Structure formats: structure tokens, C-alpha cells
Amino acid sequence: MCVKNRLEKKNREGGMNMIEGPLWDKVLLFAMPLAFTGILQQLFNAADVAVVGQFTGEMGAHCMAAVGACASLIGLIVNLFVGISLGSNVVIASGVGSRSTSMVKKAAVTSIWLALAGGVFLTLIGEFAASWALSVMGVPEEVFPLAELYLKIYLAGMPVILLYNFEAAIFRGVGLPQIPLIALAASGVINVILNLAFVLGFGMNVDGVAIATVVSNLISSVILFWILLHRKMISWKSLFTKPFDLKITSRILQIGIPSGIQSSVFSIANVVIQSGFNSLGTIVMASSSAALNIELVEYNIISSFGQACTTFTGQNYGAGKIHRCEKVLKTCYLEGLAITCVTAGLVILFGKPLLSLFNSNPEVIENGYLRLVILMCSYFFSTQYEVISGYLRGFGISVLPAVLTTLGVCVVRIFWILFVFPLSPTYATILVIFPISLGTAALLLILALIYKRPARRILAAREAAA
């Protein structure tokens, strides 16, 4: 009992108390640091695109196209493991809710080693498969060498990139999302400085911005590692005496792998869609690259409410407060929808000036703005399935939302590019699939929530047992 009381006291002093008190302010205070963290991560890539687009002279459009061509593939790889890190988030949140200090610490150590092992694996595989992957995506010959160089350097930094994301999941699980944000903000400033130094000072192009991104992620991951040691959530002894707790590893992977598949589904579909953009020439590739960076800022805001729903649901489920889990779902959905409408409206209003930061070519700006308008109007659906997926994941239900998102997004988009796009190979034809696929995914997740009703079923089982 003393250990449990200490954990509860520590959580209330150092992290957010998610199992008591009003939810409206807490969900917002939790989601906003998550959103800003995701936005800063995206700004790493946006800074790459902007610097090479503005400061590499005649190579600007080609460098932008090269970085943009890699974005979908990098997103596929990173999102898979970021999704797996959600397994760590759920396990740690459940441990906090049930006041189990040992579970929290074991999950933290296991998460560190999963990140490093996964990062090394991806680096080794990626270095050999980079050229093949870009070839499959149909990257044009004039862009291919630049894209290959950028991708290989980026993949070399996978261990530290994944380490930061798993460390961030640990802090989210205990209710401290602001700490990863602060670490990332510090390294983000360094990223911009290094981008300019390598490109303007040393005459580099895509290789310079890739190196800057890896170094920045190294700095943010080291900062979080030090804080974890300082807060005694991990120790050097625990890291090497029992790096993997088999039971906790199994639980993290059981929840995380389906979540990783769900997270990477969009990237798989985007790789296929990127191949369609690639077939339309360098201008369309550059337009898509610029718009994608702005879109992902908006999407990070939406997904932050899904992650908040996962963590709040996980802690309250662990604490046995099932009625409160339903309140979490409603709060995250309503707040997420309101924030999405406001921010999407701002993106539509200021879309063209934002696009001009990446490239001043009028044709690039017009094509990019058309994509922005269609995506912003479609993100109403994204709020629905992100929050519902987060809610189900908080109960440990990961497979169903992963499968349904795969069907709604990935299968629909691949079908469209393979069979519909060839009938009318235009830019507009590709853009139409975004609202269709997002709406399909939202409908499937709503039906899944109606079918599963995890909170109601748990309460009914308790009543029956009583």
C-alpha cells in the first residue's frame, strides 16, 4: 500500500491526474503539447523542404521533389514504430492508473530497448533497400540521386529517431506530454540553424538537411534519456540487468503492432498516391511536397486528441473507472472537432502565403492550394476515426481499428490509383480519393464502436458478477 501511495503522490505532483476531476481542461492541456510536439517533428521535414527549395538555386525544385518523394516512405517506416510506441503508452498509462510502480519502470526500460533494436534493424535494412524502394515508387531519373542520398542519411539516424518517439510515449503515459515538447523545441532550433549552416555555409543540398535532422533527433533523445534517469523512471542498472521483460514486451507488442499498422496505413497509401503524383512531373511533385508539410501540421493536431483519448482511457481503465472512460471519449471528440474546424479554416485562409514559404513558383502554389482545400475539408472525418481508434486502443483493442483503417484508407486508395486514376490521369483525379477514403474509414470506426461498446460491456459484466 505504501508503494501505491507513493506512486499516486508522485503522479499527482509530477504528472497530470487523469482519473479525478474535470476532463475538459485536462484533455486540452494534454493534447496541445502532443499537437505541438508532432508539429515540431513535422517542421524538421518542412525546414528541409523550405531550405533546399529557397537556397539551392536552380536545383531548388529538384531538391524539393527529392525530399518530398522520400516523405511518404519515411512516414511509412517511422509511423509503424511510432504506432508500436503507443503500446508502451497504453501499458504505462494502465500501470499508473492501477498504481503499479514496477510495471511503469519495467515498461519504460523495455521501451528504450525496443526503440534501439528497431532503429538498428531499420538502418541496416534501409541502407540496402533504399534504391529499390525509390525505384518501385517511380521517382523520376533527374530526382533519383538526390532522393537516394537524402533517404540513406535519414535512415542512418533511425535509432535516435525511434528512441525519441518511444521516450515521448513514456512521458505521455505518466501524464507529462510537455517534457518531450520542450526537448524537441530545443533541438528544433538547432535543426534550423544546422540546415542553414550546411546549405548556405558549406554548399550542401539534401545531404545537409538530412544530417541536420538526424543530429537534432539525437539531441532531443539524449535530453529525454537524461530526464528519465533524473526522475528515476529508468536506471543504468535496470537497463542492463533485465532489458526486456517478456510479459510487458508481449503486451506492448500486442497493442503496439496493430497500432503501428494502423499508423503506417496512411503512409502505405501515400506511397502509392505519391507514385501517381510522380507520374505527373516535377511541378506536381513539388506542389504535393509543399502542401503535405502543411497538411501534416493539421493532422498532428487531430491525432493529438486520439492519443489523449488513448492515455486518458488507459489510465481510467487501469483504475477501474469505466464510466469516466465514456466521458473521455465524448470530451476528446468534441474538443478535437472544435479545434479541427478552427485550424482547418485558418489553413484555408492563409494557405497560399504558407505555400510560398516553400516555393515561389505560381504553378506550385496553385496546385498545392487545391490539395490543401480538399484535405482540410476532409479532416472532419479524420477527427472521428482518430478519437474512436484511441478510445478502443485505451482498452487494449488494437486489431479491429487497425484492420478497419486499412480497409477504409489503404485498400480504397490503392484501388483508386490502380484502377480509376489510369482512366483519367490528372491531378484532380488523385485528390478526389482523399475525402472518399477518410469518410469510409470514419464510417467503419463508428460502426466498430457501436459493435464493441467496451465500457458498456465491462459494466454489464460487473453487474452480472455482482
Structural overview:
With 466 residues, the chain is mostly helical. It is 86% helix and 0% strand. It has 17 helices and no strands. The chain has helices spanning 2-14, 24-55, 60-97, 101-136, 144-156, 158-173, 178-201, 206-230, 236-241, 246-278, 282-318, 322-349, 351-356, 362-394, 399-420, 427-452, 454-465. Helix 5 packs parallel to helix 8 and helix 6 (158-173) runs parallel beside helix 8 (206-230). The longest helix is centred in the N-terminal third of the chain and has 38 residues, at 60-97. Residues 1-13 have low confidence and may be disordered.
Tags for this entry?
466 residues, mainly alpha, disordered N terminus
Rg, please?
A: 22 Å
Computed structural class: mainly alpha
**Helical region count?**
17
Distance between the termini: 26 Å
> Could you tell me the strand content as a percent range?
under 5%
Please sum up the structure shown:
With 466 residues, the protein is mostly helical.
SSE order and pairing:
Layout: H1 2-14, H2 24-55, H3 60-97, H4 101-136, H5 144-156, H6 158-173, H7 178-201, H8 206-230, H9 236-241, H10 246-278, H11 282-318, H12 322-349, H13 351-356, H14 362-394, H15 399-420, H16 427-452, H17 454-465
Helix pairs in contact: 2-3, 2-7, 2-8, 2-11, 3-4, 3-5, 3-6, 3-10, 3-11, 4-5, 4-6, 4-10, 5-8, 6-8, 7-8, 10-15, 11-12, 11-14, 12-14, 12-17, 14-16, 15-16
